[in-house]
Structures
1.
Amino acid sequence: MAKTLERTFDGRELFASTLVWSAAVLVTGTFCWLLGDILWHGLNQISWTFLTTPPRNAGREGGIGPIIVSTALILSVCLGVSLPIGVGTAVLLAEFTTDESLFGRLTRRSLDVLSGVPSIVFGLFGNAFFCKTLGLGFSILSGGLTLACMVLPILIRSTEEGFRSVPTGYRLSAAALGLSRTTTLVHLLLPAAVPGLLVGLVLGVGRAIAETAALIFTSGYVDRMPGSLLDSGRALSIHIFDLSMNVSGGDAHAYASALVLVVLLLAINGTASWLAEHWLHRRIVTV
Amino acid sequence: MRPPTPTPGTQPWVPLEERPACYAPNPFIEVEQLSLHYGQKPAFHNVTLSINKGYITALVGPSGCGKTSFLTSLNRLTDIIPGCRVAGRIRLDGLDVLAPHTDVIRLRRRVGMIFQKPNPFPLSILKNLEFPLREHGLKDREQIAASIETVLHDVGLWDEVKDRLHSPALALSGGQQQRLCMARALVLSPEVLLMDEPCSALDPLSSGVVEDLIVGLRGRYTVLIVTHNLAQARRIADYAALFWVQNGAGQLIESGTAKQIFEEPRDPLTAAYVSGMRG
Amino acid sequence: MISSGSNTLSRWPTDRLLLWSLRGVATIAGAIVLLIVVFLVMEALPALRHVGVARFFTDPSWHPTEGFYNLTPMLWGTLFAMVGSVLIATPLGILSAVFCRYYAPPAVAQLYRKLIELLAGIPSVVYGFWGLVVLVPLIGAINPPGPSLLAGIIIVAIMILPTIALMADASLTNVPQQYMRGAAALGLSRWATIRGIVFPAAKSGLFTGVILETGRAIGETMAILMVCGNVVQTPHSLFDPIRTLTANIALEMAYALGDHRAALFVSGLVLMAMIASLVAAADWISRGRIYG
């Protein structure tokens, strides 16, 4: 063994470095290509007119006004249903069940399974249950309810995290003061767990907006301005799908709609990340 | 570098006091004016110390005096701590440790380190010892097996683990894990062993076993051990150095032989510390 | 969390009301999965009864108008697309995470991580659209026609890469610092440390990431629908157009009636079964890996 301390050349290290950097460059390049392409082709179509007027000529002209409205309505239905159920379940799991309770374990298990179900299967279910059995037909309501099912696991998981991060001391002090569980919950714990809830909410919204397969058979294709929740409405993601696959010459507006959707999602996921890092002090994985 | 011993009749006559000492221990590590900063905060300032070859040197002092930081600068582990700056000179066997062209990998093969909390890798016992050997170039399977068996005997683990070399290292007890970490450091045949409070995280029984091990290393390795435990330092050290916080940074107050530091300290602070009146 | 069975409930009536309403709500949430399975089975029953399970794998082809319901070509399509995309995305994703944690300067690592997080949020329809207008013509120029298994594999690989990259990043971050310091003190080089110590330490997280991304690859519908060509055939080359189970449902649901519609629900059940077995296999494999 040499008694010197001079630097030597290590071939394996060089190979590893090259491999790692190449992977990073490849990935960055591909994504920049993708995002750049959308930005390039979509940016010049975006205007206030585009965002507010209805589509004409099967979407080749005009804008995406009613589509944005439909998307917002579907989202509202989704959140309006999933929030109370989600928060309630999260509260129960975090505050009122032990780790060994059968009910708790079963519920958690079923939510885990739910989060793995593919979106097209949700579409099938939504079609069979909401559209046919409950008689809602192709409507914003059906779409929103289907999305609510999809979004529940995310919302519950994040809200539960929010509750778990509240220090035990709060609950002990409240109990020592003789406060009822309800009061403790509503006045102490819920406000403290709001960051977790918000993160879950934002993540859920992000997931819902990106959804296409679950909506095709539940909220339908109609691109007019919806009159009520029972009307069929077209979500932004479906509009992009339709323009690119079924409408020849629809590419230009498809690019523009894609850009709008991507920007919306960036804003949403960015907010979720920011909230999580600053309020919850942890990083979340938005996969 | 020592001047060569003159052979009689061939060299001009050199006065007695200038001839190389033939009994005094040789410094193996020489530290000159070493200072370390974490960002703006100084950990220790202007430490000058010589570590003698083959002996056990204890670094004592209350916590926060920079003893551990001093230790980590000797094998340039400070390189991987972000914001850490080291100034001064460290010479190991005459070679400049802090020079930019120094190969830290070679350095760390010659200088081994054992941490306060045992940290065996999440691999099997065998793999923990085999992996560093292979990475440093040893390919011969029989040699590897022989080295592993030797070090396991050295640390007294052989009989306890010889039947389960493939079981996970993390399944061992705390004391066994620390001994495995020592074996892992020894398997690379280092010349220096840096130990950062190796017994403080162990129960008294394991602590005793590890301490006996360290004493057994005397004469074969140069050992530098940071310890809070004055009684332990008294038991095992040949040389000692006291660190203390002064002017906001760790300072080397006094260093010398263990006998001198513990029984005839020159500095009043040292006297107060070793008698238990301060610290 | 404080454990609280009902025996620790106070006398407050609101508490009792609260508990029961929470239980009701949680039951709804927990029952959804059951509801899904029940409805799928209900809708699929007609096909299972008239057509019989065996014919879903032995009929000459998938031609519902003629009463043929063989799912196998589409099963192969799903499997090939899944395997191909996972094989591409996993090493790239893990290397990306390694890059972020160990090789990139801090500013670059921050940017890179943000980029991957950004991409995790892009919807599948946008990926499919880009694949349709950019990737498919490119592949068509090399080897016509453009829509193909290869296009599907590439697009799905791009889509699932953020999943594995972010999970890997989280697992690498959780590797205890003491291993890194121990490895450094032994003079182990960076790649040796990563290969020999970090990967074994991060094993379970990486494994979870692979399972997650595989599940996502199996369930992907829109992007595959848009770039794969949707011809029902067992692919014999990367350039053959294929149709996956998911794309099949999306395409034919709009006009399917009677047994045809029920057959589509059967393929929905097959998808659920695939994912369930994936998760079960993952559970079983990871059970033996407590210490490694």
2.
Amino acid sequence: MITNKALVVASNGAMKAGVSHNPYAIGYVSVGYLDKSVAAVALDGVKPSLKTVQKGEYTVVRGLYSNTKGERDGLTKSFIDFLFSPSGREIIAKKGLIPAAG
Amino acid sequence: MNGLINCYAKCQVVGSRSLFLAATVVGVLLTLSIFAFMVMLGLPLFSVHSLTLLLTQSWAPDQGLYGVFPFICGTCAIVSLSLLIAFPLSLGNAILIHLLAPRRLARFLHQVVKMMTGVPTVIYGFVGIFFLVPLVREWFSRGSGMCILSAALLLALLISPTMILVFLESFAAIPATHLRALEALGGTRRQKLLHVILPGARTGIITGLLLALGRALGDTMIALMVAGNATAQPESLLDSVRTLTAHIALVMAADFDSIEFKTIFACGIILYLWTAVLTLSLRCLHAKSRIAS
């Protein structure tokens, strides 16, 4: 459980800015947002990276979902199909996320 | 011919009157319906958790507690501290511009204050994160620097221009005859300030204070960016807090259609009622001062 004295920020970017400007801070960000301004913490000797997350070695991960109201059809269906297409996956990977398996 | 012009003028009066009436009705209805919508959308929450519990409990959703009391405290702490800082500064600044400074300096300061009213609050928040927060952290060497004090300092900067401009306006509205009478009696500048300007501008000074209070209450960005948004009950000025407005912004960004989400309507209703009370007291104040004069 996280203490209620913990600071809360509005976004991954704000968390990175907050941690990089405070030498005593520690916080959660998505692995895709990691860069040289902050140091990543190893968990059980495993450093977080796209590779270790993909292999399942780094265990603090979360999935992102596309939700629709009811069955997907029309524009929503073609958008979700696009997310799974090669060019869609390429865009997702470029943004530092791991595309879902088919 | 005359009759025709008369008729035309009459039509114009009736036409513009109904136009203004329609605008007023639409404005009032919109404002009231926003309140009605917040109550309606919040009802599912109020039927499960009584309003008194919501207003007095602490915030721990994983234990079934959805009270917004810590956020009310956080809002009050930040707003009152920022007024405490900004009021003397603004009054002094207005007196300097109106009475004490050489004319060119006064005009320059007046322009700067006018310009400050246009600075978006997100800029203050941004500067706060990179400049003020590290300073506060190092000065007090306690906590993260994201706290009531940092947010109140920035908020003071945000509301000061509003206060200064209202104060200046009320100073300028003091009848010249009063000032001339004092000069004819050989009064000093200090007597002018203490016995003519300040008593004469009393209504204006309170108006400025209330307007600034409303602005501070409604601001979201500064608290969201530099107050830290912790959900714990604050115990010191260096503790991180979440304001009602920041709570609304944070929950909106992360959640939808849960009990947590519904609490934002409780926050909205509290803010709405506070603003309504503020506006009504402003009205009463002005009605009273009009009767007095």
